[in-house]
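Subject: Sanity check before I submit

Could someone independently write out the structure tokens for this chain? I want to compare against mine line by line before I put it in a report. The sequence has 188 residues.
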Amino acid sequence: GRVVRPPPADLMLHDLGPHGRVLLARNTSSRGMAGRAPGAAEEQSLSWLDWTFPNDISADGGAVLFTEQGEGGGSDYAVFLRPMRGGAAVRIGEGNACDLSADGRLVLTRAQGAPALLVYPTGAGTSRRIPLDGIRPIIGRFSSPDHAFLWAGKQDGTTGYFDVDLASGSARELGGVTPPSGGAPLSP
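---
Independent answer below. Compare away.
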């Protein structure tokens, strides 16, 4: 046989007919999210592109922070903030979203493929990249506007909790705190 044309998508061949006809199926998958805004009567779809992963909700419940992890988000993923009552999502930056600050002015993300945190303003302002020496963030939360609390992988293959100074990038491991097996969600 020979390749007539490379497929434009993920195709599955189901059958070949006697005169060169084929029965194909196009396989697609996506991830979405839905929510109900405060005071709203019904839940609505809040999905944006093709692989929407919700990360946080603003303190007033009026906005959702999410990451697009599929083709729409690109290889470094993309972070968005969207009003819970619908409307356009606003692209905040790249990375995998972790947390929205209590005042809704900052977004904490972890960089894809690099031991670094990214801090983005939700309005006017300057974004910051905070390189981390020896740890890879897994989950993070703001503990104040200048500090983050992380569960992170260490160079020896274990994990631990860290307090990160977002101004200097210095990370201090918090002793005596053992991450639970199977994951470590962080509560605000």
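---
OP: Matches mine. For the report I'm noting this point. The chain is about 0% helix and 45% strand.
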